[in-house]
Amino acid sequence: MMRKIYYSLLIVIAGCNTADKKNSSNENTTDTIKSLPQPAIVLDSQSLNTDTVSSNKIYANDRFREVTVVKQSPGKFIVKGKARVFEAAFSWVVEDGHNEIRSGHEMADAGGPAWGNFSFTLAVVKARPNSILNLILFEASAKDGSRQSELHIPLP
Prior knowledge:
This protein is α+β, with helices and mostly antiparallel strands.
């Protein structure tokens, strides 16, 4: 009887060790799985101990972070943040939901993989008074010029 219990116990212990080895081998393979692109993150600026901005929000995604927009006057904004983009170059466009109103290109003070600081002034006037303007920061694809890693920011 003791012998049966002893063998049963050995089988259970051996089974547990095999499961642990399978789990540890799976941990190595999960590193090769590509993750999906992350959506823009909107943070409250007060939680990060930064200067208060007019919209009280900080925007980020995988290529841009700590992006703030300060409204200086009607139609004039200061956009600041950090970018991790190829050769420090990125583009932007202002849309009203239907049309592109303005577009341009900016440079950060460092290119990827480092995070470079940027700051630029944006002057834009609404085509329709009841429209909502959105600033979109993005990196242009070197392959085909398409927009990559878009960060959508509603203008206050």
